[in-house]
Amino acid sequence: MKEFLRFLIIATGSLYELETHLLIATHLNYLNQEQTDALTGQTAEIGRLLNGLKDNLRTRIVKLTTNY
Hints:
The protein is mainly α. The protein has a domain of 42 residues. 88% of the residues lie in helices and 0% in strands. Helix 1 runs antiparallel to helix 2. It is elongated.
């Protein structure tokens, strides 16, 4: 479980990196604001899902370690 939590933390960092790339692409006019808004909306949703998974997993890890 701890390995999966580490994976989720890395995935969150990658998501932040993607958001940075989206902003750069917009600044360089590779994407228009509408495209950027749509994509950042999707990254926000993915971020919420990742945070929910991390919170749930942390809770399970704490329960497992305190029961022994």
